[in-house]
Design a protein that fits this description.
single chain; nine-stranded mixed β-sheet; seven-stranded mixed β-sheet; 5 helices; globular
């Protein structure tokens, strides 16, 4: 049986980094199990028998966390993504590439930071899949979103297939590639997983930067093999191109990343010291 480690266990505890005048906090909502061979259909059993075996939970799945990134700056607050919502779906009722899919923890995680959901002014979605917009659009059981004052932002390409178009009710906003959406936070087009998938880059006053790359990567194993196709990528070739481009950018000085689906190692950086691209988790994290 696999030993429980941060690499194969969902993140359940909020944790923060301070970057200049910005504070960023991981807010766990739940988790989803990804079938490694079905999610990454270009892989073989051998790919998951070596060092990548440490990424698999006791049932043989990749343990992918679900949640949101809180960004605070001078008394203001925004989120990147909004979790899955208070839903618990067994493996038999999810997609064939998945195991269990669970949410529900985001409001409590946010409360633990002292930030009122009503004070969140912006939720910027990496893309409009339900494990990223849950508390914004489908909180469940007839409940309203707790983010009563937030503007909801995504790329125009992402909103294109949405029932309500941006500016329809004043709360939906289309953001452009390269646009600053919050002090120090810029939208970056990274298509592939969806046509309008967007990453968000925080450039802090201390010279550090943090890239919240959404679903460009789903597992640390992809760092060494960005060419592996992803079953759920809408545009597979663009997905590969976005992963390769992001690896180049992560190699820049002072560049950190937020990987919302990377089990309990959601903050880290690119490590190439061994000659192979690897995910190096940050160990100095203020909980």
């Amino acid at each position: 049986m696999a030993t429980a480690t941060p690499w194969n266990t969902p993140a359940r505890t909020p944790r923060s980094l301070v970057l200049g005048e910005h504070k960023v906090t991981w807010l766990p909502d739940g988790h989803v199990q990804l079938d490694p061979r079905r999610w990454l259909p270009g892989t073989t059993d051998a790919d998951w028998a070596g060092e990548n075996a440490a990424l698999l939970d006791p049932e043989g799945y990749l343990a992918a966390s679900i949640g949101a990134l809180l960004i605070e700056y001078r008394g203001r607050a925004m989120l990147v993504d909004a979790g899955f919502g208070p839903h618990d779906i067994p493996a038999a009722h999810t997609h064939p590439t998945l195991g269990v899919l669970v949410g529900g923890g985001l409001p409590e995680a946010l409360r633990s930071t002292g930030v009122d959901p009503a004070a969140v002014e912006l939720i910027a979605f990496s893309h409009l899949h339900d494990d990223h917009f849950g508390w914004a659009f489908r909180p469940g059981q007839g409940a309203r979103t707790p983010f009563s004052s937030a503007v909801f932002a995504a790329s125009a390409a992402e909103w294109a297939g949405w029932p309500q178009q941006p500016d329809g009710d004043g709360r939906l906003r289309a953001v452009a590639d390269g646009e600053e959406i919050f002090p120090g936070v810029t939208a970056r087009s990274t298509p592939g997983h969806t046509a309008g998938h967007t990453s968000y880059v925080l450039d802090a006053a201390d010279g550090q930067r943090l890239i919240a790359f959404g679903d460009v990567f789903h597992s640390p194993a992809q760092f060494a093999r960005p060419d592996w196709p992803v079953a759920m990528d809408a545009l597979p070739e663009q997905g590969v191109a976005s992963r390769r481009a992001l690896l180049d950018e992560l190699a820049g000085p002072g560049t950190l990343a937020f990987a919302n689906h990377f089990a309990d190692v959601v903050f880290g950086r690119l490590d190439t010291a061994s000659g192979t691209a690897r995910w190096e988790p940050l160990v100095e994290i203020h909980k």
